[in-house]
Amino acid sequence: MIIRTNASHLIFLAYLVGRPMTEAASILKMTKSYFALSSLLVSKRIDTNLYLFLYFSINYSIYTMENDLKIPENYQAVMPYLILKGAVTFIDFAEQVLDAKLLMKEVRDNNTLMHGEIKIGESTVMIAEATEDYAPQPAGLFVYVHDADKACGKAVSLGAELILEVSDKPYGRSGGIKDPFGNTWWITSVH
Known about the structure:
Blueprint: H1 7-17, H2 21-30, H3 34-42, H4 48-59, E1 81-84, H5 87-98, E2 101-107, E3 113-120, E4 123-129, E5 140-144, H6 148-157, E6 161-169, E7 172-178, E8 184-189
Parallel strand pairs: 1-4, 5-8
Antiparallel strand pairs: 2-3, 3-4, 6-7, 7-8
Helix pairs in contact: 1-2, 3-4, 5-6
């Protein structure tokens, strides 16, 4: 969920800073990078509490006052678009291995997938069948799941090639598979 800056954020910021709202807005614009934010803290223009508020605001895009990007529901700014041989079968694979949810499935007369969309966690992935005009375009994808061991095991049982055994890494329990459609998945869970 993206929280947009509104008057209540600026009022809160003005309250914390103890300065007029126009100056609070100016400080907010200056904090679009961690370096700028740290500089404000070091120069004592903001205190630790405000620093923490702004730090987390940057992480969750609270300050997007300019260039307000309109994105339809279930979409994000960047979405993979996989063009695959056997795209309809890929949807079944993703549902079983990655707990994907089908959002859209439009097929041509010959029952090939013209356009499909699945949701994995909070991310939408678009899919289409490869044709003469559109060559296969598989991808390398990193995905978080509830149980990496189970997901990788299920993928292999459905024809995927294990390319990296699941093991503990600094960022979680992770393994790699190449699915039957040519995509490489780095499947990871954090406990």
